[in-house]
Design a protein that fits this description.
Layout: E1 3-9, H1 25-29, H2 37-53, E2 57-61, H3 69-74, H4 84-91, E3 102-105, E4 115-119, H5 126-129, H6 132-142, E5 149-151, E6 167-171, E7 178-184, H7 197-206, E8 214-218, H8 221-225, E9 235-238, E10 241-245, H9 252-262, E11 267-271, H10 278-284, E12 290-292, E13 300-304, H11 305-308, H12 311-322, E14 329-333, H13 336-340, E15 349-354, E16 364-365, H14 367-380, H15 388-391, H16 397-413
Parallel strand pairs: 1-2, 4-5, 7-8, 10-11, 13-14
Antiparallel strand pairs: 1-15, 2-16, 3-4, 6-7, 9-10, 12-13
Length: 421
């Protein structure tokens, strides 16, 4: 049976605050502070446990090898002698944000009936631009059955593609045909718009999507300028519900009209700007929440503690729950380390609609497997990383060995040693 599965990125042992993403206000504001990789990974594992407790099916994507020595070699350097900025970019743990791993179209939407994957090229940010190769390898292993899955190469330069963070899907239920929404950017003042319309259209063609059920919507420049570097900072969809900020899209009325024409059954839950401003939405990550339908059928919004603790956002959530809308439950998770680096609960996961029996079981988790992963993290992940260990005059090469050994220990526990090395 096709099921929606959340594949969470495990926070890697090199998690640090280098502030490498202009436009991501949380990341740049916390640049240069001490990070806590072990705690960050355990927070992510706790979030996955909460998903399992709701009855959701849960998967994982693995940290990438860091520092990325091949990328540094392509720049004619190595970690010890690279300039500080290149060291930071090579050491980034940003692959933890699995929402940027790929764009995924389930078989119910595609011409050949298979689930299609296109890894995001992430060209706009140098520290993310070298993720696509390893992401593609993991996806090809996890979703290897050619009868059920199709894999495409990343979109070539210069057309930036940021994956599921700028892609939404609406359907009466996950297993039914739906409409796919690609949200692209044009400009955001001083901040770059990361998603190209050309890239979005190319992904749609590669996936064999029906043009009548595929929409291309422009993201609001005001939202980008406010720090919504991805659409998922101001909008999230689940089954028949679009949960969206009033100023998320460039032409709100035209966009809503297109959506309703393609899918008259869609319910749009709009948060008005006079209740929650764009600044409120970005600082709280209200929309970078997981909107899910557990087996009990009660549509649930999983928000970070920052949203629950924000007075105006919390007041709006209370008003929403008091009404008769489709979102009937709000759960709170603590992912403060991810939030401090600019990624909320939704950033940490990639949604895939597929039959779990067709997926490599090494990439699916239950409570016992999460216990094993947590044990590895507790033993091997660095407790802290101080910025000078990476960007200082003399890089900490012992940290490099710790990071490499920690990832290797995780691969051994998951029986992926020799596969993802």
């Amino acid at each position: 049976m096709p099921t929606e599965i959340n594949f969470d990125g495990i926070v890697g042992p090199s998690h640090n605050f280098a502030g490498l993403s202009p436009g991501n206000l949380a990341a740049t504001q916390n640049a240069g502070t001490t990070s806590w990789p072990r705690h960050a990974a355990l927070e992510g594992i706790a979030k996955m446990r909460a998903n399992l407790a709701l009855g959701l099916t849960q998967g994982i994507l693995l940290p990438h090898d860091r520092p990325n020595r091949r990328w540094l070699a392509s720049l004619s350097t190595d970690y010890a002698s690279a300039p500080p900025l290149l060291r930071a970019q090579a050491m980034s743990a940003s692959a933890m944000w699995a929402a940027n791993a790929a764009t995924v179209s389930p078989g119910t939407d595609t011409a050949d009936g298979r689930c299609h994957f296109t890894p995001a090229n992430l060209l706009t940010m140098p520290h993310r631009s070298h993720e696509a190769h390893e992401t593609a390898r993991q996806l090809a292993i996890a979703f290897a059955d050619p009868a059920h899955f199709a894999h495409h190469a990343p979109i070539p330069a210069p057309f930036g593609d940021e994956g599921a963070a700028n892609h939404m899907r609406l359907a009466r239920s996950h297993g039914e045909p739906g409409i796919e929404l690609f949200v692209y950017g044009k400009s955001g003042g001083a901040f770059p718009a990361r998603q190209s319309r050309v890239a979005s259209a190319a992904v749609a063609r590669a996936h064999g999507l029906d043009p009548a059920r595929t929409l291309f919507l422009a993201q609001s420049p005001d939202a980008i300028a406010a720090g919504a570097f991805h659409n998922d900072v101001v909008a999230v969809a689940n089954e028949q519900v679009l949960f969206v900020h009033e100023h998320a899209l460039a032409d709100r009325d035209a966009a809503y009209a297109e959506i309703r024409q393609a899918a008259p059954w869609v319910e749009i839950v709009e948060v008005p700007a006079d209740a929650v401003s764009l600044a409120d939405a970005v600082s709280s990550y209200l929309f970078n929440a997981q909107l899910v339908t557990p087996p009990d059928g009660v549509m649930t919004l999983i928000v970070p503690v920052e949203a629950a603790g924000h007075p105006r956002v919390a007041a709006w959530l209370e008003t929403m729950l008091a009404g008769n809308g489709p979102i009937r439950r709000v759960e709170t998770v603590d992912v403060r380390q991810s939030m401090a680096n600019g990624g909320g609960p939704a950033c940490l996961r990639l949604r895939v609609v597929a039959d779990p029996k067709t997926i490599d079981p090494r990439f699916l988790v239950d409570a016992a497997k999460l216990d094993s992963i947590a044990a590895v993290v507790s033993e091997h992940w660095p407790e802290t990383i101080v910025p000078d260990q990476i960007v200082g005059t003399s890089p900490d090469l012992a940290l490099v060995q710790t990071v490499s050994s920690a990832r290797a220990a995780l691969l051994r526990v998951l029986a992926l040693e020799g596969v993802l090395d």
